[in-house]
Amino acid sequence: MRELVERAWAEAVASGALPAVPEGVEAPGVGVARPANPEHGDFATNLALKLARPLRRPPLVIAEALAPAVRAAGGDLLSGVEVAPPGFLNLRLAPAFTEAALDRARVAGPAFGRVQVERTRRVNVEFVSANPTGPLHIGNARGAFVGDLLSRVLAAAGHEVTREYYFNDFGAQVRVLGASVRALRAGEPLPEEAYRGAYVADLAAELPDEVWARATEAGADGDGIVGAWASERVRAGIEASLEHLGVHFDVWKTEGSLHREGWVERAISRLGESGHVYEQDGAVWFRSTAFGDDKDRVIRKSDGAYTYFAADIGYLTEKFSRGFDHLIYIWGADHHGTVARVRNAAQAMGFDREAVQMLLIAWVRFIRDGVEISMSKRSGEFITLDELLAEIGVDAARWFFAARGHTVGIDFDIELAKKQSAENPVYYVQYAHARIASILRRAAEERLAPAASVRGSLGRDPVALGLAAQVLRLPEVVEDAAAAEETQGLTAYAMELATTFHAFYRDRRVVDAGDPAVSAARLALVDACRLALANTLELMGISAPESM
RNA sequence: GCGCCUGUAGCUCAGUGGAUAGAGCGGAUGGCUUCGGACCAUCAGGUCGCGGGUUCGAAUCCUGCCAGGCGCGCCA
C-alpha cells in the first residue's frame, strides 16, 4: 500500500499535478496507517500533511492534487479515495481485492503471515546464557521468552536465525559447585561460599562412584572434576527445562572452547593490529576510550588470566567467522555497562558495530503475598522456572512476556497471575480459535464445507469484509514486529482479531443448512480467521487448541 | 557525581509524529429455548510525572527538573 502511494506521488509529480520537492530539502517518508475509526477507510496516508512544509502549500490542496493519482494507481484495488481534513487521504479497499487476498491466505496455510523482508540476514541470537551452577530460576525467565519470541519473529520475516546459549564450563563458579557437591557427598560442612539449594544435595546423591573416586584421587583438583560432572548435569537439566518451554537452542557454546580453539588469542592480536591495545601495570588493556567509552578495559590481568571481556571479543570473531551478519545479545539490564566495550572492540577489529546489538531486558520483580521474592543461587532461596510454569502455565507466561516491551520493569505478582489465569487474555484468543474449530466441526455434521473461494461472496457484507480485513493484517503485523524487534504487536493483533471474530459470530450466522452458499462463504472466512489466530499464536509459541 | 532504562485509568501494561489516548484485570448494569456464555453490549474511571521548546499537529522529538530501577572492578 505504501508502494502504491509512493508510485502515485511520483506520477503526480511527473504529470505536473504536484511540484517536486525542492533540491536540498529532505523528501518526507510516506506514512500509511490503519485508521482506528472505520469511517476513515482501510488505510490512510498522511503524505499531503508531510509535503505541506517542503512544498509550501496547504495540505488540503496537496491532498486534492494527489487523490486522482492515487485513484489511478489503485486501479480496481481501491474502491474509494477520499480527502479528509486536515489533509489525510483515506483509502478503501475494493471487496474483490479483499476476497482474492483471503483466498491466497487460505492457500498459504501455515505460511500465511510469514513474509520475506527485502534485506534478510543471518542472525545470531544469544540468550539465557546462565552458567550451569544451578537450575534456571524465575530471574532467567524473561530472557528465555524474549529471546525465543524474537527469534521466532525474525525467522517469520525471512531471516536465518540461530539460537545460541553461551556458558562458562570452567573457572571459579564451577569449582565452587564441585566443592559444594563434594562436601555434601563426604558429609563435611559446606564451605562458606557454597551453593546450598536442594539441587546440590540431589547432585551429591547422584554423583557416580567413578567420578567420586577420580576426584578423591586428584585431591585438591577434585573440585574441578566433580564440578565438571555437576555442571554438565545441571546444563542438561537446563536444556530440558527450556525444551519444556518450547525454547530450543541450536548451539551450546562454552567459554572454554573459545580459549582452546585460539579465538581469544587471535581476537587480541587482531585488536592489536588496530593499535588500540597496550600494556600497563603488567596487564593488557583495550583502549575503549578511543571509541567513546569512559575508561579503558582490561583484557588480560596482571596474573596472566584473561578477563571475561577477553572471551567476549574472542566470541565476537568466532561468531562473525561463522558468517553471521547480525549478532543479537539478550542481556539483563545490569549488564548495560558492558555494552559499549564489546561494540567498541567489534568496531576496532573492523566489524560493523551496528551489526552487534544488545537488547537489555529490564528487571522482573516477582512478588508473592505482597512481598518481593529475593533470589540467590548461593543461599538456595529461589523459585525455579519449572516451578513457576507449573503454577501459571507456559501459554500464560509466554503471553505475559510477549505483551510487554523488554525495556520496562515488570512487577510479576504470582498469586495475581494465578488468580487471573482463568481471565488471562491468552485464553480469550485461544477460545476464539476453539470456537471456530467447533463451528467447523458443527458444519461438517450438517454436511457443509468451507467454499474453495470467497470470490464474489463477501463483497456486500461490511461485517464480513471487516473480519477479512482484520485477518489480512497479519503479514504486516509480522513485518512490523520483526523490524521493531518487539512482540507486543502480536498480542495486540491477536486480541483485536479475536474481538472482531466474536462480534462477527454475534452478528452473522455461519452454519445455516437453509442457505448453503452463504454458509460456505462464511465458513471459508472463519476458517481463514482460525488460520490467522493459529499462526499468530504459533509465532509466540502458544498452543492453539481445537477445544478447551 | 556520571551513564543507561522507566514514569500513561484503581492494578498490570500497550500506544514513540497524526483524526475522539487504548486493552486486559478489577467495578456497575444488561444480554442465550438458536452455530461454544472462557462470549457480547453499555457505563464509570486520565493534569499521558512536572515545566519550557520544536511542529499544521506532541504521550511520542528536544531541553531542564522530580521520582524509581540498574550500572560505573585487573568480578563473572
Give a short overview.
Helix content is 51%, strand content 13%. The chain has 548 residues and is of the alpha/beta class. Helix 8 packs antiparallel against helix 9.
Query: What composes the largest sheet?
Result: 5 strands, parallel
Radius of gyration: 29 Å
Low-pLDDT stretches:
none
Tally of separate helices: 21
**What structural class results from the helix and strand content?**
alpha/beta
Number of strands: 15
Shape: globular
Could you tell me how far the N terminus lies from the C terminus, measured between alpha carbons in angstroms? Answer: 38 Å
Q: At CATH's second level, what is the architecture of the domain at 424-539?
A: Orthogonal Bundle
Q: State the CATH topology of the domain at 424-539.
A: Isoleucyl-tRNA Synthetase, Domain 1
Please state roughly what percent of the residues sit in beta strands, choosing from under 5%, 5-15%, 15-25%, 25-35%, 35-45% or over 45%.
Answer: 5-15%
Oligomerization state: single chain
Strand order of the largest sheet: 7-6-5-11-12
Topology:
Layout: H1 2-14, E1 32-33, E2 43-45, H2 47-55, H3 59-74, E3 78-84, E4 88-93, H4 95-108, E5 122-126, H5 141-156, E6 160-167, H6 171-186, H7 198-206, H8 209-218, H9 222-244, E7 251-254, H10 255-260, H11 263-273, E8 277-280, E9 283-286, E10 297-300, H12 308-321, E11 326-332, H13 339-348, E12 356-361, E13 364-368, E14 371-372, H14 385-392, H15 394-402, E15 410-413, H16 414-420, H17 425-445, H18 462-471, H19 474-484, H20 488-507, H21 516-539
Parallel strand pairs: 5-6, 5-11, 6-7, 11-12, 13-15
Antiparallel strand pairs: 1-2, 2-4, 3-4, 8-9, 9-10, 13-14
Helix pairs in contact: 1-3, 2-3, 4-18, 4-21, 5-19, 6-7, 6-9, 8-9, 11-12, 12-13, 17-20, 17-21, 18-20, 18-21, 19-20, 20-21
The protein binds one RNA strand of 76 nucleotides through helix 2, helix 6, strand 9, strand 10 and strand 15.
